[in-house]
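Summary for the steering committee. The consortium agreed at its last meeting that each partner would contribute one worked example illustrating the joint modelling workflow. Our contribution is presented below. We chose a case with several input lines so that the handling of multiple components could be demonstrated. No manual editing was applied between input and output; the record is shown as generated.
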Amino acid sequence: MNKNLATGIFLSLFGLLFASMSLTYPLGSIANMGPGLFPLGVSLIIICSGLIFCLLSLKNNDVVKGFFKIPFTLLLIILSSGIISNYLGLLTGINFLILSSSMLHRKFNIALTLILILTVSMLMLVLKQFIVPTLPL
Amino acid sequence: MIDNLLLGFSIAASFENLVYLTASVFLGTLIGILPGLGPAAAIAIFLPLTFNLGPVTGIIILAGLYYGSQYGGSTTSILLNTPGESSSVMTCIDGNKMAKDGRAGAALFAAAFSSFIAGIIMVCVIAVVSPALSGIAFKFGPAEYTLLMLFGFMSVTLLTGDNLLKGLSIALLGTLFGIIGTDINSGIERFTFDSIDLINGIPFVAVAVGIFAVTEIIKNITEEDQVTQYTENINLFPSKEDIKRVIPAALRGTAVGGFLGLLPGGGITVSSYAAYALDKKISKNRKEFGNGAIEGVAAPEAANNASAQSGFIPLISLGLPENAVMSLMLGALIIHGIVPGPMVIQNHPDLFWGLLVSMILGNFILLILNFPLVRIWIYFLKIPYYILYPIILTACCLGVYSISNNVNDILLIALFGAIGYVFLILDLSPVTFILGFVLGDMFEDNFRRSLAISDGDFSIFYKSDIAITLLVLIALLISTSIFNVNKQDK
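What follows is the complete predicted structure of the assembly.
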């Protein structure tokens, strides 16, 4: 995908999201601004800038380069560890985070990862016992 | 001044602060040594740990991490030709050549000693310039502050080599994210999606960790681990000739770094490049540059340390952060209930003078640490990245969680990690985003107050001399940007 086009779409989408939500708040006047006017103005500037980048894509052929599989998986892992922590406790969430994020690397070593999990688990237990008793392990 | 310095000394030299300072410069040096963990990401990770400490101790720790990382980056540049930080790239050229010629000790001395000189000089400069600049800042009204922040957004964008329109759009996007939560004027909740967690806004640490730390991990995870071991003996003692050559180069580097560090977006990397280029032109031994000139190590190392420290001047006196790390410092100060700006020195002398004296002590500690611990630093380099990044990720999640004991904050790390990765692949600047995010509230508040004072009349933005000066500077930045675009097109 063209980089300028992707930038334009990215900016426009966020601009539209904030603009549409701003309209639901009182706008007021220039002299006495309501909570919606400033974000509406800023959103409109962002949308305009997004459109300019879309137009610039006609002139420039730079394409978006990047790895998508690993970043997407890593972000999913962080997201999942948050959800797991919510339901099964922080200890399970963090252990899941260490194990699954380590597996992403091509040099994944199960023995080292298990040692890491054990160490972090013990540290967290010590943390709960002596420093943060409220830690929801 | 003496009384203030004594006050600062009594704070910085307290047992508790001294222990934290030593630990933070030690960790900072380690961060500087490890490739793949920059100072911004590291400060974002350590930020939550400072919340339970007082604001002075918290800022002393974060500052120690920052300038400690500048020292650390030089060690691996010299011994292994592997810059731990982008600001240490220039040190590789002559530093590693010296190490290969058996003069590693002299190069390490030049790096540590010139950083030390720069650190001490810059502390004196901050002590004199910041209060003076605060005096000027008292003349700033809401209109001037609005323009100053706009100028900050633009200059950070331009000086980091970004497209002005792109950088400004991202800063404004950051502003929108920054104003999420309760509107202080009307009490109405904005953009919260009816979530109680967002009433007080998006937690700054979750944004910083997501944008910097997670994105950095994503960037590094696919790269090869390159661990080179340095096995030669290191003679740490320089010759008299070395010392003679280091001092003038360090002073020149300090001047360049100190000046560039003051400019919004000037940054430490640019400073080290500029100092190296200058010394290569004017040094007596310029012919040796590239082949192991000791000045080629001293000048950029002094510059990056001077720049790291002079960045505190606009932050403390104007409340204007000029790079990512300073934005994080600003966020930390706000979290601790301190609004940076001209009143800081007057209202919190303990913070200002305590921080300054801690920098002097921190520089001493670094000088002591850097020599005997060289071999230990090299040992840390042997930790492969595939072991390191799950630990960093865990520290990120636990750190963010610990602030408000809210698991949802971990989800925010993933969200901002995703946004950070989009920035990375689209060449958008995370620095301007974080600047907009941190300043968002203040930007809106000052803009609204300006127009409320003038009854909706926009002429308030060009009524005072300061406002006109800032407008001229903004116009200059815009014309520079247009000139750059035209030059690229040709």
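Strands of chain B lie at 181-182, 189-190. The two ends of chain B are 54 Å apart (CA to CA).
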